[in-house]
Each structure stands twice: as structure tokens, then as C-alpha cells.
């Protein structure tokens, strides 16, 4: 793919989003805000998301990194423009809206990377931290977005996986990237859960504070288990972990994530804690560090 063309594509939506945010932030007219949000900001974000997914599909590692950096630049715009100082709006607009829209598109691109088994792309998309707040610098941006959305009661489901799946159902152009058959939704759901699981493994390994959240918890274990079995077998999914991860550490992370997921899914359905297939259970028994 022509790199110069990619850069040309990247520059326009980023500038457009910044301009639209600035203009929309200076008015209290709801119709004007909606015009800027729905007619300028959303299409520009969709353009970035489409480019990201095309590059993921073609496994263009370096270019995916550049587009992901552009998405991250958009994620930081609310802080740069001080949008958090705005009064509450009648419509969803402001920092949490931008964070929501960006992270959902990141989840879709990450899920596509998992679907294509382009595992080295997973950390490029997931392993980014908020730069303007030292507390959040210890976690990935998905955890930040989830917390901010939950505080404002802006989550449409119980998790980012669920919200991203809803967005895919509303945007068939992106859904068809997971297949044109009736099973596209199933493939997308599996891939979203597995992307989330992988980023939780990475974040858990890197953060002593364990600032992770199992968005996958509200779905059945079977959505993630093929990935877990590949991880413990040392398969290609290990390429998603861009740093050394000893088996003993991986075993400990799997045990903790299993507990966390079971706790989150308690009473609402989804993950069943302790339900491992035989090969994973054997891995955990062999490599678990005894207290």
C-alpha cells in the first residue's frame, strides 16, 4: 500500500475532528452540536477505523501503528482542548463521547486482528496509556475509557465487548469484515472477547496495581477458550505478548483473570469460573506458583 496515500488519509480526518470539536464546544445549540458530532466527527472516525481495518486485514504492521497513533491523538483531544470544563450537555458530547467512539473502533480493529491471527498487531492497538494523568498511566486506554463511561452511565451494555458488538450490528460495513454469512456476528463476538482477553493478559503482566477489567466476562467461556488453549500451548497467539512472559507468570494471570471474570459475571450470566479444559488445567497445575 502506498504509504504517502495513507498519510494523506490520516491528516484530513484528524484535523476535521479537532476543528469540529472546537466549534461544537463553543455553542449550546443542541442541533449545532449534533450536526458537528454526527455529520463531521463520526464520519471522520469511521474513515480512520476503515483505514485501520484495511491495514489490519493486509497485516501492515508499521502502517497500523501509524493509524493507531492517529486514533490515540484523537483520544487525547478532549484533554488538549480542555473539553472537560464544558457544562453538561443535553446530548452525549464531550470527553467521554470521544473516548467511547475511539475505543469502540479500536476494539473492532483489534478483534479483526485476532480473527486474522495477526497477533503482533494486538499490542499495537491495545497497549497505549493515558498520558495526561499519572494514575491512568499504569493501565491501558481501554480501562480508562471503560471507567469514564461507567461513571457517566454511558455504557450501552455491561462491557466494551458488548458495546463494540452493538456498534458492529449498527454498522454492517464493518460487520461484513468478519464474514458475509449468518455467522459473522458469532465470529465478531468471539474475536472481540479474545482481543479483550489478550489485552488483559498484557496489562496484568505489566501493572502491579492490576488495573484491568475482564470485559469478556459477560460472555461464555467458550468464546475465549480456543485462544487460552493456544496461549498455554505456546501457539501463535503468544505473538500478541510483546515481552517475555514465563509460563509461571501466565498461569498466575489466567487464574486471577478467571476469578475476576467469575466475580463480574456472578448472577448475570457469562463466565463460569474454574471451567478449564483438561489441557489448560494441566498447564495451570504444572506452572502455578504455590503460595
Question: What can you tell me about this protein's structure?
Answer:
The mean pLDDT is about 90. The chain contains twelve helices and no strands. The chain has helices spanning about 5-25, 30-55, 60-80, 95-115, 120-125, 140-150, 160-170, 170-175, 185-205, 225-230, 245-265, 280-285. The longest helix has 28 residues, at about 30-55. The protein is mostly helical and about 290 residues long. Helix 1 packs parallel to helix 3 (about 60-80). The N and C termini lie far apart (about 50 Å).
Task: Give the tally of β-strands.
Answer: 0
Quaternary organisation? single chain
Percent strand:
under 5%
Q: What is the helical fraction, as a range of percent?
A: 55-70%
Outline, from the CA principal axes? globular
Major β-sheet annotation: none
- Average pLDDT rating: 89
Rg on CA atoms, Å: 19 Å
In short:
With 291 residues, the chain is mainly alpha-helical.
Defining traits:
single chain; 291 residues; 63% helix
Q: How are the SSEs ordered, and which strands pair?
A:
Blueprint: H1 3-25, H2 30-57, H3 61-80, H4 95-115, H5 121-126, H6 141-151, H7 160-170, H8 172-175, H9 184-206, H10 225-232, H11 247-265, H12 278-287
